[in-house]
Amino acid sequence: MKKFFKTTFACVLGTLIAGLILMIIFIVMMIGTAASTISSEKPYISQENTVLHLDLTTVQERYEEDVNFDPMSLLNKGDDDTSVGLDQIRKALEIAANDNNIVGIYIDAKGISAMPASIEQIRSLLVEFKEKSGKWIYSYADNYTQGDYILASVADTVILNPIGSVDIHGLGGTQMFFPLALKKLGVEMKIFRVGTYKSAVEPYMCEKMSDANREQTLAYLNTIWDTYTTAVTASRGFSAEHFNNIANSITSYLPTEEILAMNLVDTLMYRPQFNEWLKAKVGIADDKEINFASAAELASTVVDTNKSKNTIAVVYAVGDIMESGGGINSDDLVPELTKLRKDENIKAIVLRVNSPGGSAYASEQIWAELEAIKAAGKKLVVSMSDMAASGGYYISSGADYIFAENTTLTGSIGVFGTMPVAKELAQDKLGLRFDGAFTHNGSNPLNGEFLYCGIKDNEAMAIQRSVESTYDLFTRRCAEGRGMSQDDIKKIAEGRVWVGKTAVEIGLVDEIGSIEEAIAYAAKISELEDYKVANYPATKSKFEKLMESFGNMTRANIASWVLGEDFEYLNVLKEIENVTGVQARMDNIVIR
């Protein structure tokens, strides 16, 4: 019997080892195949009678493909990837305007996911494309969302499915407020803030929007809507009054004949009819297929490389500002900026900011290195995208010049801190008790016990002082950067969110303009006639991301396997862990 167990154990162990070896061989083979596939990807070369196919379902600031360790899905990637970067769109439209093989643009509207400033930027690029090239733009949709339509209105012909819809409804959004629910649970959220308009904490302290928050929200929503209205009415040839009446008509439920009568669209076609119509416009036989090129494909086109040593560095600062982790990570971004400061070939820096803010500490670290860059004699220009608010404005404020879009959300110069206290839940409802021995008032630091025991008055005062001190530093940095007094900055601070157009009027921004204009201005003030542009930080290749994902796969895969659909909540908790200290952050705004 003893021999039987030994033999059985040896067989099972041998099978497991053989299986593990086979799995490793398979993984290595798939990595090799994936690497070969990635390395064999060739730049796009346009063909005669090509149409740029714009699918703008998901728009990123800067395109980076999300590659997980799944070689099979990696090999199939591309067909299912509907995300595109603003950087790709800019390059694609420039190439399309100058390439004689590109005859026009087809906007395939499927429900764009983008903030107002991104929509504004893309629309401006489409207008510029028409003016420079004289080529056509056609748009088709089964159902136009409002964002889709703002872009589609620039088209020479706007086409809708006969049983489709166009949703024009104005702008707005709702918030959820938690105080009553927290009270029922026995939880109180302690709020520490400076700024009447600093609304990020309102969901935890109010049962509805404050008057100040409603005021600022309506102000920037109306300005964004006015920008949309001016653009659409100029393209479609009707009045602003007519467009606003349309927005009040709940258009998504109207018959398409009424939508056509409103002049929102030019004609109605089913998709097969549109395909035949488009072939006729391109000038190819009905039995032939149209050569379509995506923005990503055109953006991969090889262009003549500028050999100049003079370089303007475009540094992308995108996401929440944190000390470590994802988004704008000061632990990584500061060393990157230091390298650029010491690089003699880098003559100027354009900081491309798209951030709602985050850690005040991390914002200060980035600000300090940007000041060192200026002290080294290099010009610093900021280009604001969808938002450069709170901490995003903090890191922008010291620039030599600031550009923004009309619909950029910026300002929000204010700070806050929050602490949940579940004393009632823990002690009254659950019956827990806590005790300890300490030599001094500060011997029990705020390291978690406050959650169950509450915050003492002296502790609360210390936190509030820290918040006020951070606000004073924040406003001082802004005053120094903008050449204004601190008192004047405080008058337009108070945590208030401003839209780009208004920010120019009050002095927070210098000029409305694109990233291209920011680069040109950086070259001008640096007295550069011969220069090239380089983007930082460098994006990782698919293979680099694949190998990085492979290194992390064991822990992530096990967690995903154990937690199933709840795995996403673990990621959220990990993000919350990184939110420490006083925050210079704008609340999450959804504009629909």
Q: What is the helix fraction of residues, given as a range? A: 40-55%
- How many angstroms separate the termini? 73 Å
Give the domain tally: 2
At the fourth level of CATH, the homologous superfamily of the largest domain is 2-enoyl-CoA Hydratase, Chain A, domain 1
Q: What's the count of strands?
A: 22
- Class based on secondary structure composition and strand pairing: alpha/beta
Describe it for me?
With 592 residues, the chain is of the alpha/beta class. The protein has two domains: 50-168 and 249-299, 2-enoyl-CoA Hydratase, Chain A, domain 1 (Alpha-Beta Complex); 178-207 and 309-592, 2-enoyl-CoA Hydratase, Chain A, domain 1, CATH 3.90.226.10. It has 23 helices and 22 strands. The strands form six sheets. Strands 10, 13, 15, 16, 17, 19, 20 and 21 form an eight-stranded mixed sheet that branches. It has a six-stranded parallel sheet with strand order 8-6-5-4-1-9, sandwiched between helices. Strand 2, helix 2 and strand 3 (83-85) form a beta-alpha-beta unit. Helix 1 (2-39) packs across helix 22 and helix 13 (330-342) packs parallel to helix 14. The termini are far apart.
